[in-house]
Specification:
Number of domains: 3
Number of strands: 18
CATH architecture of the largest domain: 2-Layer Sandwich
Oligomer: single chain
Radius of gyration: 28 Å
Strand content: 5-15%
Number of helices: 23
Length: 737
């Protein structure tokens, strides 16, 4: 699912609103500030690594080296080959140090140096190992000797769990692609979408940019890459997310019914640091992220009322049975909402500036500030929803309503600023609504799978459906949050609600399960399941609208430190050639097979390039940011950033944590998650390849567009999948949908 919608929604607001940058010293200042922030993070992580005893830079490992060195020296074995004696000779004379003490101090200094050298050598070796990405480019079914050695070393290192943190801190930096490579790949990506005249103009703009403007901009990016951990992520968070002024609901947040899948390959997990205790705080020009080291409570919403539920009692985390009792107390509370309380969260669903103004005016003091702090400083937000949603076999449209509810609800019963809102329905089904600036969808997927597996296979329930154990009835009940909302504030709430309601009502969702075949059959076609689906989407879109469009597919860059996402431009010349062959009655089956193979190979190559730091769009985005700092106008970059993504797609990975066997527990197969429509006249498509014989699609568009229809596009996707499978004599199983 990732952040395909968000990158599109704020394409035109990457320029800092209200600020003009004309001098190069401003660019240097911004690079300095970015580096300063990056180094602060490094120091905090280094401190945490040492204090928590993370291998190999841990107090215990340092102590072992010191004691071993001192012991060997006193046993008349000098492991330093005379260096300890030289250090002792260089120490200043002092009456406080006896000869024996001087020897101990000298040995400690030497062993500390040895320990630091070993740690640095280990980290550099690990970084070199993790910089190898050749395994991604191996031909299907084959593996080079170098990759075999790499896999063996990774398996050996992965045996030691303490090394996992070292994996994270030793990941390589995201490289800055060359301007030549980026421009070349960009022109290739737009060629199938332009006629000769338009392409000629774009080619001329690109040439001028490459020769005149880009070299100066590229120098600043290279400087930033030296100084910071990741040359993209901080600007991406600030300009794409936090400076966006439009509503988060539908336009930014996404929903999850998901679990995620990964390998033993280390990926950067820095995004997980802000999973809990994080809230997006509205501002007039830009939002900020409030992140606390810890939080002792969570915020709960039920029937228009807000509660504060403590998670600790006597210094201990509450047991599941105690939490169940607290939630039941909320459900049993008959008190009505206070005036203005029921739709208060609609402020987080509307535009950001009115919310920032209302927050400063009405929630900066007194009981309103105390109650708002309780929400914003909570570990996360929980909605006990009175509706019933979920998949019901044979019930048409149940998944559509489920998706819409998770994405926007009633527009006032989710706190859209929280890192995530956990939604629990009356029938026991659940899901999540996540804010996007702090992390991408796989992080929530990771949490989701861990939660479900722990709940089912470790905590468990009684036969009556209650959590195990007996509740502590002496616990104080949940604290009802108190509000004093004046009429002017209620008017602001109502205004935000009306805007959000109109936005929500315009969302057209079609969520369906494709069970005629899954990745098992696709792999028999000797192609990547993702490539198969992406090419199917191109065929479906052409049949739906009669044209091709710029297509966005999100790809992770978490093989690098602080990596987030990159764009795969999946509407390639090879894909369009295949699609045209499918609508040409004169084309032979053999020719269509050949063209499909070329399209699939091209897509896989582009996906690998994006994951390994050789993508197009993040580099162009950063060049644009530098151009704004320098006050440089670039017609080429202006044209690039004005191109609409009318088809935005993303795959939700499956089963990242191997905490249970999906084949043994098929009822735990995920239905994935999705996001709102991207362009006013386009589609958003998220899909999850769940198991060997199931693919779930989440299709979104806008009712207000006469060009789109989510259910119609869903039917086209189904037919495209079947038609491509039939090319390879792999007919779908009979009886499926």
């Amino acid at each position: 699912m990732a952040e395909a919608h968000q990158a599109v929604a704020f394409q035109f607001t990457v320029t800092p609103e209200g600020l003009d940058f004309h001098l190069s010293r401003e660019a240097v200042k911004q690079l300095y500030l970015a580096g300063l922030s990056s180094w602060k993070k490094r120091l905090v992580r280094a401190k945490n690594s040492f204090l928590t005893g993370v291998y190999p830079a841990s107090p215990s490992s340092w102590m072992v080296v010191v004691l071993a060195t001192a012991g060997s020296f006193y046993c008349q074995v000098d492991p330093s080959l005379g260096i300890i004696a030289r250090i002792r000779h260089c120490l200043p004379e002092s009456q406080l140090l006896s000869p024996e003490s001087r020897t101990v101090v000298s040995a400690a200094i030497f062993s500390t140096g040895v320990w630091l050298s070993a740690v640095l050598l280990f980290r550099q070796t690990l970084k070199l190992l993790l910089s190898y990405h050749g395994w991604m480019f191996e031909p299907h079914g084959k593996m080079s000797r170098r990759t075999k050695i790499w896999v063996a070393l990774m398996k050996v290192l992965s045996v030691r769990k303490p090394l996992l943190y070292s994996f994270q801190t030793s990941l390589p930096k995201l490289p800055v692609p060359s301007v030549e490579a980026t421009i070349t790949r960009y022109l290739q990506s737009v060629r199938p979408l332009m006629d000769d005249e338009r392409y000629g103009k774009m080619e001329a703009l690109a040439k001028e940019f490459k020769e005149k403007t880009a070299p100066r901009l590229q120098k600043y990016l290279i400087l930033k890459s030296w100084w910071t951990t990741n040359y993209v992520s901080d600007w991406w968070e600030e300009y794409i997310y936090l400076r966006g002024r439009s509503p988060l609901m539908v336009n930014s947040n996404y929903y999850a019914m998901v679990r995620a899948r990964g390998d033993t390959v280390p990926m950067c997990s820095y995004q997980s640091e802000r999973m809990f205790n994080t809230t997006r705080i509205p501002g007039k020009e830009t939002d900020t992220l409030l992140h606390l080291v810890d939080s002792k409570h969570l915020a709960v919403y039920h029937k228009g009322r807000f509660y504060k539920v403590w998670l600790y009692y006597g210094g201990q985390v509450l047991r599941p049975r105690d939490l169940e009792m607290q939630f039941q107390r909320i459900l049993d509370d008959p008190s009505p909402p206070q005036p203005g309380e029921e739709r208060l969260a609609a402020l987080t669903a509307g535009e950001r500036v009115p919310w920032a103004e209302a927050r400063a005016r009405f929630f900066s003091h007194g009981k309103n500030k105390a109650s708002l702090d309780a929400i914003e400083r909570a570990a996360f937000f929980l909605t006990l929803d009175e509706e019933e949603h979920g998949y019901v076999p044979g019930q048409e449209g149940c998944m559509d309503a489920y998706a819409k509810s998770l994405l926007h609800g009633q527009c006032y019963d989710r706190w859209f600023d929280k890192s995530f809102t956990l939604v629990v329905y009356k029938n026991g089904k659940l899901g999540a609504n996540a804010e996007h600036s702090w992390a991408d969808a796989p992080i929530i997927g990771h949490l989701w799978e861990f939660m479900l597996a722990t709940d089912k296979f470790q905590l468990g329930y009684t036969e009556g459906g209650h959590c195990l154990g007996e509740p502590d009835t002496l616990l104080a009940p949940p604290q009802r949050l108190q509000w004093d909302i004046p009429q002017e504030c209620r008017a602001a709430i109502e205004s935000s609600y009306r805007l959000a309601k109109a936005l929500a009502d315009d969302v057209d969702f079609c969520c369906f399960q494709f069970n005629r075949f899954g990745k098992g059959l696709i792999k028999k076609c000797r192609t990547s399941p993702d490539a198969f689906i992406q090419i199917s989407l191109q065929l479906a879109h052409f049949r739906d609208k009669g044209c091709f469009c710029l297509t966005y597919e999100a790809s992770m860059t978490r093989l690098f430190r602080e990596g987030r996402t990159e764009t795969v431009r999946s509407c390639t010349a090879e894909a369009t050639a295949f699609v045209r062959s499918m609508v040409d009655a004169h084309q032979t089956r053999v020719e269509r097979q050949r063209l499909f193979k070329l399209a699939a190979e091209k897509h896989q190559q582009m996906y690998r390039m994006a994951m390994t730091g050789a993508g197009i769009d993040r580099h162009l985005f950063c060049l644009y940011v530098v151009s704004r700092y320098l006050g440089v106008q670039s017609p080429f970059l202006a044209q690039v950033l004005s191109e609409p993504w009318r088809l935005s797609t993303s795959q939700t990975p499956q089963q990242q944590l191997k905490m249970f066997d999906l084949n043994k527990y098929p009822d735990h197969v995920s239905t994935g998650g999705g996001f709102g429509p991207v362009a006013d006249d386009g589609y958003g498509v998220s899909y999850i390849i769940a198991g060997e014989n199931l693919i779930t699609f989440h299709v979104s568009s806008k009712f207000s567009s006469p060009e789109t229809d989510s259910k119609r596009f869903g039917r086209n996707i189904r037919q495209a999948m079947l038609d491509i499978a039939e090319l390879f004599d792999k007919p779908a199983e009979k009886g499926g949908k």
